[in-house]
Structure of Amino acid permease/ SLC12A domain-containing protein:
Amino acid sequence: MESNKTSTIRNASITEPEIGTMKPIANDDFDLVQLTGHKPVLERNYSRFALLAMSFMIVDSWSGIIGALATGIASGGTVMLIYGSIAVTVMTMAVALSLAELSSSFPTSGGQYHWTAELAPKRWAPLLSWYCGYFSTIGWCVVSASITVILGQFLMAMIILVHPDITYQRWQGFVVYEGMNVIFMLINIYGRKVLPYVHSIGFYICITAFLVVNMTIIGSAYPKNSADFVFKTFTNGTGWKANGIAFIVGLTNPAFAYGGLDGAVHVAEELRDARRNLPFVIISTVCIGFCTMIVTAIAICFCILDLDKVLATSTGVPILEIFYQATNNKGASIFLLCVLFYLTCAATVASQQTANRLIWAFARDGALPYSNQLQSIHPRHKVPVKAAILCWAIIAILGFVYLGSTTAFNALVGCNVLLANISFAFPIALLLFGRRKYLKPSLFPLGNFLGPIINAVALVWIIFMVVFFDFPFTMPVHADNMNYSSVIIGAVLIFAGLYWMLNGRKSYQGPVSLVVSSQEMSQTTHVMLENGSRHRRCISITAGAEYRRSAL
């Protein structure tokens, strides 16, 4: 009987894709084996700064608030842009602190769904992890689509500014969308070695662009608005009779500027010293994001000379109209928008990278259709090519939704922040309601006093968003301006539930978790030679002894 349960394995290595010479395992790789039971297959080629650059390029709050500018201006005007940004940042920081602690405790590419599986009661862990994973995965594909579509709008806006007789057609934006989507997929497949440097350079360009854009519009705009206008003017162009509801609905603008906050989490298995660096990256992303966003918001408010014209601009891109009002020069306005076009491209590359890493991790644990295929790593490119192709395909399909109906596509875009935050709510709620004791040692502990307070604030904020961000943006409501976010959320729930009933409850056990004592850690090297959540096997290799494989 014992011989059936164990077997002799010699010369095993977790640092190479094939069985070979045994080598020492880095702490990061040991953490990964202990947490997931999976052999490390991705190279840790991201430094702390490179991942911070990538994370900030995704969030890029100062250009993010520009991207959703029309909603903010109509739902509160300058008051929304400034005070709304401050309020959202305070609440977002509570979410970021919670994610930072969790990521240090469980530094895996699975992120939220893995944390949920670790913290939830054993009976409910697979189901809760399953739902969390689907909200997160679908949310990231929607994030990528929502950024990509902006490129077509920017490009056509520049053309319309020069040729006012041209009218924007959806098919034009669709062509740009699909073309750029293919380019970004190829970059993610073939650019593995250079992407950390691309993100790092992009960060410097982003900060430089932030300075150039803001100094240009402040220096060129004449006359400028008064301080009273900037800090005291409330505009309600939503149709809501209650200004409070209009303001709350407008908070989607600064909330959108923090979309993709967990981007760094899903690249954890490519980050060196992940336990220490992930919290730094997440918190720094919010801090830098706020500093750049609030300055941009104030600069824009001083330079809006004709608010009605900004909202009704023929280009369809309010920020281009603001650039033109400030500079009174079409060439300068187009140059500034080209800068934003580049930053949007960089953000899309990074968001697609995050999305395909999450698809790969979720497939590795057997949660997606054709998981055996999607979890594979290309032997030459050393990236999950099939996951990247699936990510491209999903985004391409969402492009056809845009071509068919802007209302339907806007519903998807509008709920991308909600999908992500719902996935955050799973592990944060578990921490708050008695599961904090199941956290593994973290290098960013919030403690038993501050931790629950911060988790409570984060959870209240997420619930607030789920309730109020489902409200229509404008009144009266009809089919074309209805907020369909609740429909999208319901569709995700139904899809994940049906697939759970058909397949998940039989095959998905959640991520593998291996608990190893510190004494055993010092004496034994653990490696994984078999993937998949169904078998949960770990190979324990003791120096100078027979190699035994134990089923856990």
